[in-house]
């Protein structure tokens, strides 16, 4: 019906077959997709709707973005209002109220003295911005030999050259060559043998942080600018930080004057039951990157939150000088700022971070109940995220995962994602217990089918 389709809009019509051709789809098996497309035309709250009006339960918040659910009225209204007020406002050399207001709100939300916000338009831009801030910080404080960046195996930090360099995905190395030089990596914290079927943070694995000591021994602290990690590695299949791991990283960074960056593009804005994962783990990074949940995905936006000492290091020299030689035409776009302010209001008004925290035990039990389904190798869950590892088909890694997405969408009416043969679920934080049961029931059936 009209209401179910959201905002009384009529669904978009079916696509003509040749309409499918021109769009070169990102991170998608284009040929397989175009044989049997999965198209959504509208959305409301927990559901997407196909062009013919079929409801699809959103098990992945679009792409980990729509934390408060889809097309929420206050966000839609704020964007519509903003679009008629100020189409574009430059933030190089000029400003507009929304940019300053949103930065203040984010600074107030972020823990401790993380209170200066630089805006960009995506997680990838946020990561490259944070890496550049780290390099420029050391330059500004007389440590220009600190140019080395440390990432982590199985890390995902978007698709910019900085992000793929500090990231730890083999496909990037295979596909794009040598990338940035002067980068090294911590090992992944995932160890199935010692961590399998853990809810939340595994007890085993804090010692993986000590590898940073080894890298300091190898490269010398005087050459290292920053360490970047996701508090929970999302895109490579939900790998929660082991207990004590992030604290240990912080201690080692402090000992050697290395900046610590948390990439919170996924973990920010409620996914782990807090505004930021930094709060959950009681660890204050020097820089936080964010995107996705800041605008509930409705308008592209990303950003970096810097601690006072990082920001203040730049605020010297002649006053007319540009302190940070960096920015994007669309940094703090008025529509994104309006969406961001309305989204933060919604998180506050519905207490959605606390809701996610309260839901976590029920969610974790539900996801873990799939433990005995055929073939399941491991299940991980933290906050409102869950991942299920299935065995790859011999000679065809990722094929079973692909089939899981297809069957879930076409046969069960749920949207899930996969990373290779790992099924990943990250529903909006407004999901009800009944919808959790529905999602898990359907995913259970998908596992039985693809196995
Ligand atoms: N960093 C992390 C931790 C992410 O999960 C992602 C995207 O999933 C990115 C960066 C890149 O964000 P975007 O796709 O908005 O560039």
Compact description:
37% of the residues lie in helices and 15% in strands. The chain has 451 residues and is of the alpha/beta class.
Question: Could you explain the architecture of this structure?
Answer:
With 451 residues, this protein is an alpha/beta fold. It folds into 2 domains: 167 residues, Aspartate Aminotransferase, domain 1 (Alpha-Beta Complex), CATH 3.90.1150; 276 residues, Type I PLP-dependent aspartate aminotransferase-like (Major domain) (Aspartate Aminotransferase, domain 2), CATH 3.40.640.10. 37% of the residues lie in helices and 15% in strands. The protein has 16 helices and 17 strands. The strands form 4 sheets. The chain has a 7-stranded mixed beta sheet with strand order 4-12-11-10-7-5-6, with helices on both faces. A hairpin with a 4-residue loop joins strand 13 and strand 14. The longest helix has 18 residues. The protein starts with 29 loop residues before the first helix and ends with a helix. The site of pyridoxal-5'-phosphate has 14 residues, from helix 5.
CATH level-3 fold name of the largest domain: Aspartate Aminotransferase, domain 2
CATH architectural category of the largest domain:
3-Layer(aba) Sandwich
Rg is 22 Å
CATH superfamily of the largest domain: Type I PLP-dependent aspartate aminotransferase-like (Major domain)
Bound molecules: pyridoxal-5'-phosphate
Q: What is the CATH C-level name of the largest domain?
A: Alpha Beta
